[in-house]
């Protein structure tokens, strides 16, 4: 406990002492505690704590509150809390803390369950079970808030206000399973049938855990690819994430949601992953590109498509990576597709890519204001860009603020060197135009990107 502030040590000691006092009546002679039920539930709870993906522990704790006297209900969680996996230090202090929490919350929940009017069978026990579940959640949240105040020095108001609403969700979700366990326990089917309630919960927990892990792996894959692109082309760092964000704004205006929205976000983030196959000297070149260098640049959509071909979760995003430099009039690359031949995702990403490129500072020109960028997109709608996508972005930006990333100091200095003071693109030029050219000549082919 040496790493904790004195206030936190005192707080934890008080919670553990209060838990011991609450559980003390259970060990007195003649208390009439059904120790068989306590030990069985405690063993199940310990397994759930040690193997969290096996089954959620909350239904077992609530079943103990519904089945046992208040002094014994909290004891169900003690073995699991003391033997639980400790990842943060000090481990034993945290284990004692959780054990004390569970004893107090379980004991008070059992007390409420026994006091609230209602039967002990279904559906008469719904009201007492609901009240007990809410009390369990509020006690856990209140004790956690106290720990935040004493251990981290947070203001009491923020420590408790942020935890109480979310704390009510788990008991409301898992409370019916705990009540079903308690009802079956006292039925003709007995404890074995009660424990079978955990089987579907275990399966659903395992499936959800697999989904979370798979999603985390997807996110890690995308982050690794984006970081590699950012390291190679340092002057467009952050561009990929912003294109992903702008693509989502457009997609939501078009009514996309769920998996398609997530796939489109990936498409925006990974649209330039093919730059990993382009020589660094070409990407970082400050002057005009030679025809040969332009041809090399024009290969990056195909490079990107080949890189992500085997990543199954990208789905429609692969088409956007390949075709985001196509233009509606057929003058784009790599295949010169026209109109509706261009996949929808690619048409979205093309607008998001051009918008962020125009509103970001590059080594060869300064950033344009958001209204000027939208005006230029509208001018090029129908020839270079899909008008629906341009209109969707314009609508989205009326209720979502866009914050272009400030250029790093070395890039700002390079722009000052590359843009002469008498050039219209220089910020001090009296005749500086209000909008950039997207459809006209660009440093890289196909417009911004």
UniProtKB/TrEMBL annotation:
Basic and acidic residues bias: start-end ranges: 420-435
Domain HD: 236-358
Keywords associated with the record: Membrane, Transmembrane, Transmembrane helix
Annotated PROSITE patterns: HD, HD_GYP
Pfam families reported in the protein's UniProt record: HD_5
Residue ranges crossing the lipid bilayer per the database entry: 58-84, 96-116, 122-143, 191-208
Keyword Transmembrane: yes
Ranges for region Disordered: 400-449
Domain called HD-GYP: residue spans: 214-409
Name of the protein: HD-GYP domain-containing protein
Lineage of producing organism: Bacteria, Bacillati, Actinomycetota, Actinomycetes, Kitasatosporales
């Amino acid at each position: 406990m040496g790493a904790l502030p004195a206030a936190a040590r005192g707080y934890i000691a008080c919670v553990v002492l209060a838990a011991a006092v609450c559980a003390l009546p259970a060990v007195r002679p003649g208390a009439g505690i059904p120790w068989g039920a306590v030990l069985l539930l405690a063993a199940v709870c310990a397994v759930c704590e040690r193997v969290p993906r096996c089954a959620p522990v909350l239904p077992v704790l609530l079943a103990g509150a519904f089945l046992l006297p208040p002094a014994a209900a909290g004891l169900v969680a003690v073995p699991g809390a003391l033997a639980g996996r400790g990842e943060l230090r000090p481990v034993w202090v945290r284990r004692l803390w959780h054990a004390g929490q569970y004893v107090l919350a379980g004991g008070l929940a059992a007390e409420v369950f026994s006091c609230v009017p209602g039967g002990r069978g279904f559906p008469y026990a719904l009201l007492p079970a609901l009240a007990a579940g809410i009390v369990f959640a509020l006690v856990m949240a209140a004790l956690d808030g106290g720990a935040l105040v004493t251990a981290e020095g947070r203001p009491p108001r923020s420590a408790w206000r942020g935890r109480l609403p979310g704390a009510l969700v788990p008991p409301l979700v898992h409370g019916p399973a705990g009540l079903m366990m308690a009802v079956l326990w006292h039925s003709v089917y007995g404890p074995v049938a009660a424990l079978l309630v955990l089987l579907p919960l275990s399966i659903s927990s395992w499936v959800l855990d697999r989904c979370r892990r798979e999603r985390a792996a997807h996110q890690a894959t995308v982050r690794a690819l984006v970081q590699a692109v950012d390291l190679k082309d340092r002057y467009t760092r952050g561009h990929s994430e912003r294109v992903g964000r702008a693509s989502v704004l457009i997609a939501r205006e078009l009514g996309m949601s769920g998996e398609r929205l997530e796939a489109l976000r990936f498409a925006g983030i990974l649209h330039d992953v093919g730059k990993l196959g382009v020589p660094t000297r070409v990407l970082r070149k400050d002057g005009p590109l030679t025809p040969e260098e332009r041809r090399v640049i024009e290969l990056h959509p195909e490079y990107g498509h080949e890189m992500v071909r085997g990543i199954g979760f990208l789905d429609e995003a692969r088409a956007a990576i390949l075709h985001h430099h196509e233009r509606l009039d057929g003058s784009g690359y790599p295949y010169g597709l026209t109109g509706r031949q261009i996949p929808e995702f690619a048409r979205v990403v093309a607008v998001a890519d051009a918008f962020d490129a125009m509103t970001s500072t590059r080594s060869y020109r300064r950033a344009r204001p958001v209204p000027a960028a939208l005006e230029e997109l509208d001018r090029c709608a129908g020839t270079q860009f899909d008008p629906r996508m341009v209109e969707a972005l314009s609508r989205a930006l009326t209720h979502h603020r866009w914050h272009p990333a400030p250029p790093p100091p070395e890039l700002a200095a390079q722009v000052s060197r590359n843009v002469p003071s008498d050039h219209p693109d220089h910020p001090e030029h009296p005749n500086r135009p209000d909008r950039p050219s997207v459809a006209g000549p660009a440093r890289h082919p196909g417009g911004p990107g």
